[in-house]
Specification:
five-stranded parallel sheet
């Protein structure tokens, strides 16, 4: 299964017994949208609600900390998803949150995970069928996985990187928050960025129909941001959500030497002792 699935391909495979379609929609509080209620109103036939908002480390005060493998396995098992099941993730979110779900499941070592190109918006625009209600699936036991912590960075690692510059840092937030021209209203913090970071706004990776841009255009966007795809990259954003969109784009262009700083600006920007920069990437 391709890691980026078209609406046409998904429509052809919806009835496959080894396929699970998961709605991974998640919205910012200011959007005043209820992902669960929207799913119950209309979703892709046979889809299951992932409840991505709850798939994080509950012991952390930060909003986007990666959960452990036991929680991931239990979360999927409760939704009737066995170890051999192929998974297609989609969302109806402005955050392109299916990519966040992809990163979490990839870090947990799952294979056969794909993202629906264009998401629910494209599915609806094409007049494809929808269902309502909350489907009930028999829970399944599945073994806990091991999360690949080597691809997760914490604040200490990001501070160390300021000295050795072993990894490039890319920030997926909009340019105004990155430069500090505006405050970060999402996390109620001043704008700015980690020193030395490059800015690649996640929305620039999509066409008007919310499908990913062609591979040559994605490569060009990475280069325009001042990133060398042949060197290690760490992605950051506000809380690890849209950083995942950039990581998925890097995966699409064939690069896998990357990591996520899941604390992101919610952690870095809130710490008075961390160095910050404003203005364009230097």
């Amino acid at each position: 299964m391709d890691m980026l699935v078209s609406t046409e391909r998904l429509a052809e495979e919806l009835a496959a017994p080894d396929l699970a379609v998961l709605d991974a929609s998640l919205h910012l509080p200011m959007a005043e949208r209820d992902a669960r209620a929207e799913f119950e109103t209309a979703h892709i036939p046979g889809a299951r609600f992932l409840d991505l908002a709850g798939l994080h480390d509950p012991a952390s005060a930060l909003p986007g900390k990666v959960p452990d493998g036991e929680r991931v396995a239990r979360w999927l098992g409760e939704r009737g998803i066995g170890p051999q099941t192929r998974i297609v993730l989609y969302d109806g979110s402005d955050l392109r949150s299916a990519c966040r779900a992809w990163v979490l499941l990839d870090l947990a070592g799952l294979g056969n995970i794909a993202v629906l190109d264009g998401g629910l918006a494209k599915w609806k625009a094409e007049g494809r069928p929808l269902e309502s209600g909350m489907p009930d699936h028999a829970a399944m036991d599945r073994p806990a996985t091991t999360v690949r912590i080597t691809d997760i960075r914490d604040k200490a690692a990001m501070l160390a990187n300021l000295d050795d510059h072993r990894e490039q840092v890319v920030d997926a937030r909009d340019p105004d928050r990155f430069t500090g021209a505006t405050i970060d209203t999402v996390h109620d913090l001043p704008g700015g960025h980690i020193p030395g970071a490059r800015n690649l706004f996640f929305r620039d990776l999509f066409r008007d129909d919310v499908t990913y841009r062609p591979i040559p255009e994605l490569r060009a966007a990475v280069a325009k941001a001042g990133l060398d795809p042949d060197r290690p990259i760490v992605a950051s954003c506000g809380s690890g959500m849209t950083a995942s969109v950039v990581l998925f784009a890097l995966h699409l262009i064939g690069r896998d030497d990357f990591a996520i700083y899941d604390g992101s600006w919610a952690e870095w920007g809130a710490d008075p002792d961390t160095p910050k920069e404003t203005g364009p990437a230097s």
